[in-house]
Design goal:
alpha/beta; UDP-N-acetylmuramoyl-L-alanine:D-glutamate ligase; nine-stranded mixed beta sheet; 9 helices; 13 strands
């Protein structure tokens, strides 16, 4: 099948820092880089590198086509990306020596999508395909509602997390992947435990403590791979992209979670977001190496 991702595209400005900046503090960076980013773009690249077929829909400034090269090289179809006069979204990413990060987003063109992009996607999409989106663009709710009515399966990446929007969209969602902090906030917003949401597939990621699955395929906990992280930016996007690509290819939940965990483990040992995402061959090789070592 095919995955249609209505997602953000950012230019990331990445600063290595001795520690994350405190209020009122001025601190010199130890390194600087710029790269393609945005949760949407990261997830599309992860899907493609995991072997999935993905179309990305979004918007950039008309002079910024060069920033799409990494997506195209990864195998992402950029047919639905439009160009305009609004600056491409960007993010200021600070990463400390422990690999933790702070991110400031400027949505810009990501917040300027028009509804004809939804019409274009659904003209091509077929029932049983997947619709994916995040909270870094406008049109999140209209896209998911239209896609559901068209017969698509829905994967919602509820980040940056907005509890009220997530609660509103839950009846549409087939696969929801949230982290432990988001799960706690969502539970408070809806007044019941998240394992009673009624979502067919719910995954709660817990960083180095692995991830939990609750859904129609049972209950699972899959441990994270122990690694020394240098940069956690994009780890969640890597996990989601791998998870969705495997489910779309008919892989079972437990095996898909193991592969997603392996990919995220590799990704956090490298600097950057999308550039650090491993391909499917490298990820599978890491699982084989772990089994051989064990």
């Amino acid at each position: 099948m095919t995955i249609y991702n209505l997602g953000s595209i950012n230019i990331d400005y990445i600063y290595g820092m001795p520690h994350l900046v405190c209020p009122g503090e001025t601190l010199a960076a130890t390194r600087f880089d710029s790269a393609l980013g945005g949760k949407g773009a990261n997830q599309s690249i992860a899907i493609a590198r995991a072997g999935g077929k993905v179309f990305h829909a979004g918007m950039i400034h008309r002079d910024d086509d060069n920033w799409l090269m990494d997506m195209i090289a990864a195998g992402v179809d950029t047919h639905f990306i439009t160009r305009g006069d609004i600056p491409t979204g960007h993010a200021i990413v600070a990463v400390d020596d422990a690999g933790e990060n702070q991110i400031i987003l400027a949505p810009l063109s990501n917040a300027s999508l028009t509804e004809d992009i939804i019409t274009s996607i659904l003209t091509m999409a077929k029932p049983g395909d997947w619709a994916l989106t995040q909270n870094e663009t406008n049109l999140t709710a209209p896209y998911l509602k239209a896609a559901k009515a068209h017969g698509l399966l829905i994967c919602y990446s509820a980040a940056p997390f907005v509890a009220e929007m997530t609660a509103e969209l839950l009846p549409l969602v087939d696969l929801l992947i949230i982290n432990a902090i988001e799960a706690e906030a969502l539970s408070k917003a809806i007044g019941k435990p998240v394992d009673h949401l009624g979502v067919p597939h719910l995954i709660i990621t817990r960083g180095s403590d692995g991830a939990d699955y609750v859904g129609k395929d049972g209950t699972y906990h899959v441990a994270a791979k122990p690694v020394q992280a240098v940069d956690t930016t994009g780890a969640g996007d890597t996990y989601l992209g791998y998870m969705l690509a495997q489910l779309d290819q008919g892989v079972g939940i437990a095996d898909a979670m193991s592969l997603a965990a392996a990919a995220a483990a590799i990704q956090v040992t490298r600097h950057g977001a999308s550039a650090a995402i491993p391909n499917i061959h490298e990820t599978k090789s890491s699982l084989t190496a772990n089994l051989t070592k064990a």
